[in-house]
Structures are given as structure tokens and as C-alpha cells.
Write a structure and sequence with these properties.
about 60% helix, about 350 residues, globular, disordered N terminus, mainly alpha
């Protein structure tokens, strides 16, 4: 994919170059007219090279922002690959074993928690997620452009397309969470995570002299703050891009049921996450489908405005990640590689 995107970048720059020249041959000529008719080639290139279509439409700044998804994605993949390669060649980690609960792991052991280079995987994850967010919104933006020019009634149209800035700000606008459509279901969705915390968990956590975070010993308060900050950083990118994809792109094309089923199915690969059983994965996929059905219904009722869905998705994930660290600070399996083969 990286090689393909680089080749597409060369093709795109070559095709844009003549239109970007002024009459005297210097760079910085007049932008393309806003009524430029996108071709199927433009749409295909925008899939591989986000921002291409926006640049062809004369929206150079928007296109440049979307185009930054390419280096972000490449950098994210490179960091994650570099980290995993070091893990897989580390002779100090046991290659494969089964613990007392029947969980089977590959390239994972408790020593992973003490690795000082885990920041590489976290940073790679963050860069990759934000790259995916930008490329997904580029496709959403392009779809709204095409829908606006389609025959009336051909495709359900959003009352007002959601800009990238508004999508990113959605979790922080109280009206998107504190309303009768979202707040009750948000409370129900985080109830299991809150219910599993008892007084002994809190006392035990803050009674410790130090906790591990990305291989470093920090105070419990600092560890919780760092975990919450990391959760917010990851949840923001993850929630926004998934809602753009499934309550933005997919909902208009495949409807409430079709988009929700697809949203549930994409969670099945989570079975590869350490300490997540097949049964847990099936439950998560079922919950994601139910989440999608309700979020899609709310989005449809609100004129395809998915900002309420973003707020619910974001805070659900942020709370779950943070409470998970609070209850199991020594079990940061997100940075391991393994499979739980239990049913």
C-alpha cells in the first residue's frame, strides 16, 4: 500500500502541475473553477491519495490537509513495524506458551510491560489513526460533493455536511452528549466498566509507590493522568474516523441496518488482541452492531448529522480505556502480541 500511494503521489503531482502554473509559467496560478466536474479517474485517485479531488476542485488548503494522511500513515506503519520486529527477535521473550487459564500467547510475556520502547507502538498507533481519520474524511467530503450534484432523491443527502473541524470538536460540545437521545444510552454503555471498580481497586492503586506506563515508573496520579491523556488522544481519532466511515459514508449508501452490521463485523479481528477470547470478541461485535443501529437511527433522524454519535463513541471508549488502566495497571496487553484461544 505504501508503494502504491507513492506512485499515485507522482501521478497526481504530474497531473496537477500544468493547472498550477500561472500564465508566465510560475507556480501559483489560479485555482480550478468550483464547478469542475470530477471524473472517475479523479475519484479513484482520491481513494488512494486523499486530498487529490479537493485540490482538483480548487480547495488547495483542504486538499493539503487531507494529503498529510499519507506521511502520517506511512510513519505510523513504520513505527509499529519497527517495534514489532524488535519484539519478535527479542530472545528474552518466550516465543509461545499457554498460561494456567488456557490462554495461548505468541511473542508476549510480562517483560513486555518493562520495555522502554513501547512508546514507538503507541506513537505509531496514534499517527496511523489520525492518518486514517484524514483520509476517511476526504472520502466523506468527496461523497457530499457528489451527492449535492446528484439528481434529487438519488441518494439521501445530509442537511449540512460535517466539516473536519466540527467532527473533531464534537466530543467537546456538551449538547452532543447531554441530550435525551445520547446521555441515557451512554450511561448504560459505561455501566459495566464502572460497576467492576470497587473500593479496594482504588485504594490499592493509589497506595502503590509507583506504576508502569510505557515502560517507565511513575506515581499513581501521574500514571492515571497519562493513561487518561493517551485514552483521549486515541479515542478522539478512533471515534471520529469510525463515525465518519459508518454513520457518514456507509449510512447514506447502505442504510441503518447495512451500515450497522458492517460496523459489527469489523470488530471480529479483535480476537487477535491479547487476553480477548473469541467469546468476548463475539460479544463486542454484537454490542458494536447494536451501538451502530441506535447511533445510525439518531444520525438519520438528525439529518445525517453524526456529531452526537461521535460524542457517545468517544466518551464510551475514553472511559473504558482509562478505567481499564486504573483496575489493571500492570496488565497493559495493548502492547503485546498474542491470541486467546479460549471459547
Amino acid at each position: 500500500m505504501t508503494t502504491t500511494r507513492l506512485l499515485c503521489l507522482v501521478v497526481a503531482v504530474a497531473s496537477l502541475y500544468p493547472a498550477s502554473l500561472a500564465a508566465d509559467g510560475s507556480a501559483g496560478g489560479t485555482p480550478a473553477p468550483t464547478d469542475y466536474q470530477l471524473t472517475s479517474r479523479d475519484i479513484l485517485l482520491n481513494t488512494l491519495l486523499p486530498g487529490y479531488a479537493q485540490i482538483k476542485l480548487g480547495r488547495t488548503i483542504d486538499g493539503a490537509i487531507y494529503l498529510s494522511s499519507v506521511p502520517l500513515t506511512i510513519a505510523g506503519i513504520a513505527l509499529q513495524t519497527h517495534y514489532l520486529a524488535k519484539v519478535m527477535t527479542d530472545d528474552g521473550l518466550e516465543r509461545s506458551y499457554t498460561d494456567e487459564n488456557g490462554r495461548w500467547y505468541v511473542y508476549y510475556l510480562e517483560g513486555m510491560n518493562e520495555r522502554p520502547d513501547k512508546w514507538e507502538f503507541l506513537l505509531g498507533t496514534v499517527l496511523g489513526l489520525y492518518g486514517t481519520l484524514l483520509s476517511t474524511h476526504s472520502q466523506y467530503d468527496l461523497q457530499q460533493h457528489l451527492v449535492a450534484r446528484a439528481p434529487a432523491g438519488a441518494v439521501p443527502a445530509a442537511a449540512k455536511p460535517i466539516s473536519l473541524a466540527h467532527a473533531l470538536a464534537a466530543p467537546w460540545q456538551p449538547r452532543n452528549l447531554f441530550n435525551l437521545e445520547i446521555l441515557p444510552v451512554f450511561a448504560l454503555s459505561v455501566l459495566p466498566d464502572v460497576a467492576r471498580i470497587d473500593r479496594t481497586d482504588l485504594v490499592g492503586y493509589f497506595a502503590r509507590e509507583s506504576v508502569q506506563f510505557l515502560g517507565a515508573d511513575v506515581s499513581p496520579a501521574a500514571g492515571l493522568a497519562l493513561a487518561a491523556g493517551g485514552a483521549i488522544l486515541i479515542a478522539n481519532a478512533n471515534a471520529v474516523w469510525e463515525e465518519i466511515a459508518y454513520r457518514g459514508l456507509q449510512l447514506q449508501n447502505r442504510g441503518v441496518v447495512g451500515s450497522s452490521v458492517r460496523f459489527g463485523l469489523v470488530h471480529l479481528p479483535n480476537a487477535l488482541v491479547p487476553n480477548v477470547s473469541i467469546q468476548d470478541t463475539l460479544w463486542q461485535a454484537t454490542f458494536a452492531t447494536m451501538f451502530g443501529l441506535y447511533a445510525a437511527s439518531v444520525t438519520e433522524r438528525n439529518g445525517y448529522d453524526f456529531r452526537k454519535a461521535i460524542a457517545w463513541h468517544f466518551w464510551n471508549n475514553a472511559v473504558a480505556f482509562t478505567l481499564g488502566y486504573l483496575t489493571e495497571p500492570d496488565d497493559q496487553l495493548f502492547f503485546g502480541v498474542g491470541v486467546d484461544m479460549r471459547w
